[in-house]
Design goal:
The chain contains 2 helices and no strands. With 119 residues, it is mainly alpha-helical. The longest helix is centred in the N-terminal third of the chain and has 66 residues. Helix 1 runs antiparallel to helix 2.
Length: 119
């Protein structure tokens, strides 16, 4: 074998090694990107879940304050709570209709959260 053939054979071996190292590095980078993306999606899902739970809890507290207040039947809004301004006017329904709506709303927000239903 001549030295030219031997040098060409050594070059092919080094090229193969370089290609394998590049592919290993590329696969490592892709795995890290995938893990980072998965962590970001999980944190977004957790934030959304926390936000949904906070909103449901605020609605339940507001509805409880409406049901426990003697003013809800007469349509007088409580000035102590600023959250009531973000909800629709409940003058359209009252009495048994409002109580039925309240019970249904409570059941729909308490599903899977361990909150007891109150009839």
């Amino acid at each position: 074998m001549t030295s030219l053939q031997r040098g060409k054979h050594n070059q092919q071996g080094w090229m193969l090694l370089e290609v394998m190292l590049c592919l290993a590095l590329l696969s490592f980078v892709l795995v890290m990107l995938q893990k980072q993306q998965q962590i970001q999606w999980q944190s977004l899902a957790q934030l959304q879940s926390n936000d949904d739970q906070e909103q449901a809890q605020e609605q339940i507290e507001l509805l409880n304050s409406l049901m426990n207040s003697p003013n809800w039947l007469s349509g007088v809004s409580s000035s102590s709570s600023s959250k009531t301004n973000s909800y629709p006017n409940c003058d359209l329904c009252g009495g048994a209709d409002f109580q039925r709506w309240f019970v249904v709303a409570q059941k729909s927000t308490s599903v899977g959260k361990g909150i007891e239903d109150k009839p």
